Each structure stands twice: as C-alpha cells, then as structure tokens.
C-alpha cells in the first residue's frame, strides 16, 4: 500500500519522463488528487477542443468519463492513444440513450413528423449516438454552446430531437423563446410521446434522460435558501430541471459557473447547484466569498469519482512499462460519422 505522498511522487516522475508525449486533460468535476496533474482543465467543450488541437501527445490519459474519452479518440490522430484510467467511469445520462433505442425511436418520430426533424445530441452521449446524429445532418452540443447550436438547428429544420438530456434541451429551447407547450417528451422505454395536445405544434422533442447528479438540486433546496439566506445568489447548471433553473438567479455551463464566481465581488454569497468536486474547489479558491452547495448534502458524480489517484498512477505505471491499458477505441465508421456531428459543433463554438 503506497502512501498518498509516494503516489504523487511517482505520477510526477512519470509525467516528467514522458514530457509532451503524455497529455492529461481533466474535467472540472474530477477530484483534486487527480486534477493537480492535469495539463489542461475544462468543461466538456474545452476538453474536446484541446484534444483536437493536441497533435504532439502519443498518449492522452483522459481524466473524465467514458464519452469524453471517446470524443478525444475521435478528434485525435490515428497514432494517438486515448486512455481512461478506470473503465467503470461511465455516465448514467449517456446510458439513457442506447443506439438501439435511438434507431427504434427515430422510426416512430419520422413516421409522426416526416422529414421535419433534425437530431441534436448533448456530447454526454455514446459515440454511436453522435454518429447516428452526424449521419443525419445533425450536430453535438455542450452546455456552453447549446443556444448557438439549437439556433443553428432551427435554420435547417422545423423541429429538433434533443438527446439525451431533457433538461438541457428544455432550458435551452425555453431561453430561445420556444414555449413549453411546443416541447414534447419522448419516452424511449414506452416508445411514446408524453404530451397532451396536438403533436403538429411540437417544435422540440426531448429525449427522456437526465443527469442523476444535477437532478438532486430541487425547488425545495431553492426555497430553503431563499427563506434562510435571502441575500444568496443561486447559480445552477442547465442540467437541473426547468423549475430549478427558473427559480435560480443564474444558470450556465461548468465554465460559466466558474467565471461567475471568479468575477463576483468580495463578500458576495453563492449557492451553487453543480457537482461536488467543483463546488468544493470553488469554496477553497474563494475564501473571500461565501459559497455553499445548493443541496446541503453535496452531490458527487460517482462515475467521475472513479478516476482517482491510484487508478491514474496504475495506468501511468503500466504505460511506463510499455503496456497500454484501458485504451478507448471508437471504430472507424462510427468515428467518421460522429466526427461530422462534432465538427459542426466546433465550427460554431
Ligand atoms: P459541461 O462540462 O459541459 O458543463 O457538462 C457537465 C457535465 O455533466 C459533464 O459530465
Ligand atoms: Fe454524467 Fe451527470 Fe456525471 Fe456528468 S455529472 S458524467 S452528466 S452523471
């Protein structure tokens, strides 16, 4: 059993030895013990961009979740290898849209709306879903460019299908002026719409998926803060429900949240509705501001947290011994179509 100190020392030594041949991107939701070694930190958009730009690294050890590592594999060159320190680091939201369900759903959606629907997918989805969307002229979106991408989509088609996060889809469309009664939830399990009214008027079809972390921020949490600390600003991620976003003061992507807090005046008070590691990091980085989690029990992303120092060290030590373990490989055909969807997004970001 190695001490924390010893593990830190070993990771440092391997990083030094590999130099530019090794690149470690780290998502903002990663643990401090991991993020301290990141060569680039960011939200999912930024990490996709830096992975696409980095052509020097032979190994990209991705500290984030599976769909992000897939995206990195799609956007890097064929001779670059993308590694996920723990293969169990998935995403429950991405799992809510399988390619089988999507193909089946698409048939019904097309039968209902004809050719008037453009599919868009949140990057929090498998490479197969990105490919499905890319093949049909659609694009990926992240929480930091969702408005731009939905606007772009409505220039192509009359309607959009938004996978797999109903909340980001609903919040984004609502901000762009689409009324709630023109949004229908599509339930892939029952293959039916959850909608009362004339489907003809529907503009946005929301896949019934959600983030199990951001779902934990509730209207009750907001009401409690408002009652107990009325001078607190409430700042949440758009993966939170419409009701929560509606009652908050600000909503935006991970990067937006960080910027908001950084630019906030000394002494200001913030209740933040996003993943626990990021909230804790903000608390530590801004002792001059009062920052709390909007949900007092904090909300960790269990799969993000699977990437820890022991897993990072183990993967790096294997690399150092010439063993590439946990490589993420997206097959060529899937990668080609998924890349179309990603490129349409990157062009607009
Ligand atoms: P962003 O990094 O785009 O803010 O998304 C948050 C998230 O849930 C990542 O899994
Ligand atoms: Fe998936 Fe939510 Fe975790 Fe992001 S925070 S990886 S969307 S479960």
If you average the pLDDT, what whole number results?
97
Give the CATH level 1 class of the largest domain.
Alpha Beta
Order of helices and strands: HEEHEHEHEHEHEHEHEEEHEHEHEHEHH
The largest sheet is: 6 strands, mixed
Bound ligands, each once? 1,3-dihydroxyacetonephosphate, iron/sulfur cluster
Number of domains: 3
Structural class designation = alpha/beta
Q: How many angstroms does the end-to-end distance come to?
A: 45 Å
Topology-level CATH name of the largest domain: Rossmann fold
Please tell me how large the radius of gyration is.
21 Å
Total number of helices: 14
Q: Report the strand count.
A: 15
CATH architecture term of the largest domain: 3-Layer(aba) Sandwich
Q: Could you list the spans in which at least 5 consecutive residues all have pLDDT below 50? A: none
Q: What's the CATH superfamily of the largest domain, by name?
A: NadA-like
Helix content: 40-55%
Principal-axis shape equals: globular
Give the percentage of residues in beta strands.
15-25%
Q: What topology, given as strand order, has the largest sheet?
A: 7-6-8-11-9-10
């Amino acid at each position: 059993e190695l001490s924390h100190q010893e593990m830190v020392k070993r990771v440092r030594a391997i990083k030094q030895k590999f130099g530019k041949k090794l690149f470690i991107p780290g998502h903002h939701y990663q643990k401090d013990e991991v993020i301290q070694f990141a060569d680039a930190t960011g939200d999912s958009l930024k990490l996709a961009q830096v992975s696409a730009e980095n052509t020097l690294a032979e190994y990209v050890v991705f500290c984030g979740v599976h769909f992000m590592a897939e995206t990195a594999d799609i956007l890097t060159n064929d001779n670059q290898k993308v590694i996920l320190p723990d293969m169990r680091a998935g995403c429950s939201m991405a799992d809510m849209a399988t390619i089988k369900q999507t193909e089946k759903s698409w048939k019904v959606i097309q039968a209902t709306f004809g050719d008037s629907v453009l599919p868009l997918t949140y990057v929090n989805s498998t490479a197969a879903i990105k490919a499905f969307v890319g093949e049909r002229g659609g694009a990926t979106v992240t929480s930091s460019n969702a408005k731009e991408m939905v606007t772009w989509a409505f220039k192509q088609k009359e309607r959009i299908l938004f996978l797999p996060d109903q909340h980001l889809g609903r919040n984004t469309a609502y901000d762009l002026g689409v009324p709630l009664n023109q949004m229908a939830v599509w339930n892939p399990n029952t293959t039916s719409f959850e909608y009362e009214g004339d489907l003809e008027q529907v503009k946005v079809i929301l896949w019934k998926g959600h983030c199990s972390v951001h779902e934990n921020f509730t209207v009750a949490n907001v009401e409690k803060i408002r009652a107990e600390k009325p001078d607190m600003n409430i700042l949440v991620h758009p993966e939170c429900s419409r009701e929560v976003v509606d009652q908050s003061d600000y909503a935006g992507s991970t990067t937006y949240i960080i910027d908001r807090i950084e630019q906030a005046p000394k002494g200001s008070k913030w209740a933040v509705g996003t993943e626990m590691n990021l909230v804790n990091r903000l608390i530590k980085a801004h002792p001059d501001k009062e920052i709390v989690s909007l949900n007092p029990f904090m909300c960790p992303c269990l799969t993000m947290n699977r990437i820890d120092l022991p897993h990072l060290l183990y993967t790096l030590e294997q690399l150092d011994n010439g063993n590439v373990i946990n490589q993420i490989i997206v097959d060529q055909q899937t990668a080609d179509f998924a890349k179309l969807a990603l490129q349409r997004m990157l062009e607009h970001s």
